[in-house]
Amino acid sequence: MDPTTLTAESKASPRTAARGALEPERRLLITGGAGFLGVNAAVHFIKEGWHTTLLDNLSRPGTERNLRWLITRHPTMTTFVKEDVRNAGALAEHVRKQDAILHLAGQVAVTTSLVDPGTDFDVNARGTLNVLEAVRLNNPHAPLVFASTNKVYGKLEQNNGACKETQPLDFHSPYGCSKGAADQYVRDYARCFQMSTVVLRQSCIYGAHQYGTEDQGWVAHFVHSILNRRPITVYGDGTQVRDLLDARDLSALYAAAIENIDRTRGEIYNVGGGPENQRNLLEVIDQIGELSNRKPEYSFAEWREGDQKYYVSDISKAKSVLDWEPRIGFDIGLRDLIAWAESIN
């Protein structure tokens, strides 16, 4: 089936609020909505009574499969728009009448940015500016949450502990520059245009509906490779540390940022699993092997440009402002990811 036909329009039916009164259905636009983060976010918001519109160009492997899965299960709560954030003129009609915008669309790999910096810039920096301008001109009061990255902090040569939002920016690699520019544009639109924008600097998100590649989504890449008995290349020595966050927990934070926009407007939050969910690459490989009853095969290669040897998010700001913290520990989340991956093979 052609994914462009998978469009289900809601008839603006009222929803029953928790307090028992009838309220108009709220609407959320998710750019990059057919990606794994978008699908997980859509499920979370749909359960809260939102109608979700997924805008995606379907360029990433797995997005068509994700889209079919979501629309099959939630046909009246999901609308799909095949579009690209680089097409500025097409965005205005899609941001109108939305109650919030979740901007997840992007070029997601450092390695790809090194091969093609121009496209990386067009998607991440120009694409984000296109979304901001569409919202500013057509729906300026709608909350807009942007998925930024820990790469805006650069390589972080020294381990100074969990990274706070006060850590100086140090864009490294074209990807770091394009996402960093977008990050700062989103922040500045709250200051200059009084828009309700929020920046979330995300670290190592994993979960169901993530197909993963060698260049991005490494936990899922390791899972799929080990389950299918494919060898893995570990870049560096494998001791690089990351804090790991389940996409379901991240989706809850997206919702909290929107619901509390009076407090989050113009703010930046570091978002990850925090110190309790930090692991190095070799630990994750071993754990996947144990849980899947497979023996991982891997070899080592040179460090890649811009790779951080240690990055763990200080998530205390999100906890203090929004009472948010990860609920799904990595051991449980990894089991769930493996179970999902096994179910699709």
How would you characterize the overall build of this protein?
39% of the residues lie in helices and 17% in strands. The protein is α/β, with parallel strands linked by helices. It has one domain (3-205, 246-272, 311-328): NAD(P)-binding Rossmann-like Domain (Rossmann fold, 3-Layer(aba) Sandwich), CATH 3.40.50.720. Helix 1 links the parallel strand 3 and strand 4 (51-56). The two termini are 20 Å apart. Residues 1-21 have low confidence and may be disordered.
Topology:
Blueprint: E1 15-16, E2 22-23, E3 27-31, H1 36-47, E4 51-56, H2 63-73, E5 78-82, H3 92-95, E6 100-103, H4 110-115, H5 117-138, E7 144-149, H6 173-192, E8 197-202, E9 205-206, H7 218-227, E10 232-235, E11 241-243, E12 245-246, H8 247-259, H9 261-264, E13 268-271, E14 278-280, H10 281-292, E15 298-301, E16 310-311, H11 316-322, H12 330-344
